Queue: 2 jobs
Job 1
Amino acid sequence: MKGAKILLEGLVQEGVEVIFGYPGGAVIDIFDELHNYPLKFILTRHEQGAAHAADGYARASGKTGVCIATSGPGGTNLVTGIATAYMDSVPMVALTGQVPTAMIGNDAFQEADIVGITRPITKHNYLVTDVDDLPGVVKEAFHIAASGRPGPVLIDLPKDVQQAVTSRPYPKKAEVPGYKPVYRGHPRQIKQLAKAIADARKPILYVGGGAVASGASAELRKLAEKTSIPVTTTLMALGIFPETSPLSLGMLGMHGTQYANYAIMDADLIIAVGARFDDRITGKIDEFAPHARIAHIDIDPTSLKKNVRVDVPVVGDVRQVLKELNKIVKPGKCGPWLKQIRAWKKEYPLAYRDTGAIPPQYVIEQVYKATGGDAIICTEVGQNQMWTAQFYPFTEPRTFLSSGGLGTMGYGFPAAIGAQMAFPGRTVIDIAGDGSIQMNIQELTTAVVNKLPVKIVILNNGYLGMVRQWQELFYKKRYAGTILEGNPDFVKLAEAYGAMGIRVEEKKGVLPALKKAIKHPGPVVLDFKVAGEENVYPMVPAGANIRQMISGMA
Amino acid sequence: MRHTISVLVENKFGVLARVAGLFSGRGFNISSLSVGETMDPAISRMTIVVDDQGSPRIMEQVEKQLNKLINVIKIQEFSRGESVGRELILVKVKTTAATRSEILEIAQIFRARVIDVSPSTLVLEVTGAEDKIQAILGLLARYGVKELVRTGKAAIARG
């Protein structure tokens, strides 16, 4: 069998149903073989779109996303998408063509050392120089991408290897001697954790993306119900615990709710579940959680004790650990704590001003209303992302797709395309700013041609919002590079691509426009002209601890 | 402070670049690195001397991050006494008729071998533990070291 065929056979064996990508000279053999396979291929209009689409597909479905690009610029165009997946631990396999082995290192046409370039941003990568190695490499790649702490894996396949023939069969198992993730938590550590919970008076559950990757939603809910411990989540874990529950504190951190930040800073026991104490969460690290003992459940040992001291470490898969914990855990005496939390929630709700122009936060609330909270929401990066996290209450995991770790503008729209491919029957919405949406606007063609009825909600304020906010608050309003002049007419642009465009300039038009868009059987771009200089509050400024929030409500 | 770790790795394409890239990407400091195949050609052993730059706690991160690499099979950290370490150096010393015999005496004391001689230079091959290497280099410095090549430390567990 030819290398190109072995590759596709491997994808089928791994249960892949969709590939996103863009062809080129170094992958023509693979694309030729595609004719013989029932794999759905989605042609994006930029390789970055393909990578983000594979990522969105993976985050929404839990399956490994696959993208393909040619050598040289094809591969380098995937880099941002791969780095995005790496920072958020998304299972992905990226396939790149490469010049023939004899030409490698010769500065050949469309040659790039993509393995060298992506080494720091992949969980692992491969350059296959012998076709006999290919079946094993494909098997390993999928195993590594989806197991332990998931992440992107790249396979670089030279053209001559694609054309070479081997009779090596596809292996049944992947044999990787240096890679043995620990799933089962140590029973002694779990016992210690249960004791810590029983002893705590002010416990809090701090849940991150690892809980989503592990599929631990049910176990987490059970734990919270059994112990009445309040739950706060990072951006990456929104929806893992229903935000409508009285135990939910919403998101914590730089733009989290005031009550979540007060709670975690006052807690005497922080149970970190699949989270990594990122700087957006902790604020000034040496002032973070001064009174708390910290328990940390994570499948990746490098996350434990990296940023904070940990008193009860538990290495293991979140779902499995919580399952064992739930068998033995008993609630502590936290009546007064819960009372305090209820008081904080009442005194410091999220709020915004209504100045006459459409408040962007209002648009988010109407998106929730129009969808009944039953949609997959993708975001771009910046103010659009933060307002969505704050004002749309998520209740199910894998319904909020956003680039948290890398913070990639241009992620949301192609990710929405990937999510729509995974769930053709669901409403999928990308919430964007006027800056972000232009970064991968070319994917409108992908959405139209493949009949993917993604709805794009543009919070159009004419600025690079989040950076402008920092310039306003900390740089005396010296706006540099943040005024987005010359934005296109987004309605005309949508129509030029064959999609529907709707512009809304008044508050009363917001909900009807959203309803119309959701009803429409094709992709829709909604251009909401929102208030210009709105800020995301609360905000923890750089260098401050997370109690020191600017609340913005004068 | 310096820590010596011995890392067993799969002898796969790019594994050295991976380890080096990990250290540079995370800001860990490599004092020296030596690597070679074991009896199994599919497996190599790296001896890395890490400078903790005053925070010994980072060694935990160094080991955990190395372990995370797919091609890394096993890591051993060698504290004093559990291991034996040796380094080989080739040092080209400037000589004159007057100084040559002194240099040869030093070489004899340190059981170094002369492997090259020219009218104005001598090349010595010295093998030994860190302190021995340090000592002979200290003594040779006053004559003028023209060139110095070091292999970096290789270490093996006792017992």
Job 2
Amino acid sequence: MVRVDGSSDAQSLIRVRGLNKTYSRGGEKIQVLQGLNLDVDKGDFVAFMGPSGSGKTTLLNLLGGLDVPSAGSITVAGDEITHMSGSKLTQWRARHVGFIFQMYNLIPVLTAYQNVELPLLLTKLSGSDRRKHVETALAVVGLADRMHHYPRQLSGGQEQRVTIARAIVSDPTFLLCDEPTGDLDRKSADEIMALIEELVGKYGKTVLMVTHDPLVAARAHTTLHLDKGVLVEGKASSRESVLAGGAA
Amino acid sequence: MKFRKLILANLFRKKIRLILTVGSFTVALFLFTFLAVVRGAFSRGTELAGADRLVVINRIGLINSMPIAYGDRIRQIPGVKFATHNNWFGGVYQDEKNFFPQFVIDPENQRQVMTEMRVPDDQWKTFVGDRQGAIAGRGLAKRFGWKVGDRIPLQNALYGPTKTWEFNLDGIYTNDKEGGDESQFWLQWDYFYENVPDVIKGQVGWWVLKLDSPDDAVRVGKAIDEKFANSSYETKTETESAFAAGFAKQLGNIQLLITTIGSVVFFTLLLVTGNTMAISIRERTSELAVLKAIGFSDRFVLFFVLAESLVIALIGGLLGLGLAILAIPAVGANLNGLMPPLLLSPILLGLGLAFALFVGVVSGLLPGIAAMRLRVVNALRRV
């Protein structure tokens, strides 16, 4: 269950209260997020939509501990991350967050296997344990037979699958997806969304996703709109109704 | 080490750049080692000089001589144990390119003063009894393939009209000191005396003294110079190391020259490698940001950059040192005695490697710190 009014008493997996983010640009202060509240439970799949510059990526960065808010708090699985030091936050990210980027951001000189193995290098797992985890993650995304391919030898959709495998290999608390299909054709985008749905439905993952694409957003359980720095719960819209709207 | 793959993969991503950077390290290390060897060759005379030996020369300069009669007066000064005299002979063996130092020696005192240069007793005995006798250093004999009993002709134009002096090689000397000179050729004072023009007869080039104690050096040197002050042949007495240093300086300030070239090499290498690392890091900004996003700490990122730069330094350094090991003996063999022997010691090799690693760390430090300070959000926005 996703709520944006800050009224929830329940212990949500992700709990955001009074989140503010202000940037200074050329002496001018720009308030991107204004007292934002959010509660996300385990297993939720949330899509954030909004026009460019509405603060979607900023929100994702704050939730992923990549940026610090100007005010407010973010609590994930009982840990408040807003006051963590830089090094603590780095450790926290390694344990709790899986990132999926629009441009895949794979290391081009490493194979798919080696890219997926990266987060595990920070753990104390043995070489054979790491191998088991990596092979499992690559099997989940359907790339077990491409593990020794370099990114340049894979299609865009396959590269994004490797990114997803890298995001899930350490079994993080939640996944953050920034325009995961933004660089893909419709067919590949559908496949990636099917995979993310499978991660939520079959493996119980919590996913927070930023997208411009209503078709992609329609695959989420909840779509939230960012408007003038505040989250507004969108109407529940099925993929079919979005498609019908688009056709009309 | 589990990060090995990541470091090596990044290192080999631009192979031509890697080859060029490693190549610049190789050349720089070779140059560094070669310069250090040359510097060592020129300063070795100073390092190996006997602490208890003094050299007396004509105050005007080394090419001016002194009367042989000074010998007895020098020996009377308390603290002087032995005194031997030398002259520069300056002959040519077959070709002018075949340079080697030739000294007219005093057979009575040479071995008492130059104790580290050893000649077997039987060979020395033959030499002393042979007016045309000669002793060659082991290195010199090896260079020309001489053996005891050979007849050595030297052409000389320094003492009267050009003529050929014939010598019998009666012995080979060795030097007890590691890296000590084994390139000299000694000939008999009596043979020299008989064959030079009258104006030169009885004139010696310099004296070498053995003291009772090194502590006497200052007092004895002062006493000698005072004894011959205001005479036709005033003297300048100095320790053997000061004499060797002064002799080396006649070729110019070698130390300064080599230090200057070495510094230029160091800073050029630093800039080349630093620039390469900076470009390499800039190209990978988004990758570094992703590493940080997925949990690699700032220190890890710094470690990666330094590790890459150190591996480049290590490979380039080892190649440069390997080149030096192969090339320096070959260069030395072709110098034809124009320079002291070029010796590449294990200590110098160690220093070379340390130099390479130092440059590796320093050149990787600034790009590494920049990578460490990279803000993930900003870096990802640049993609």
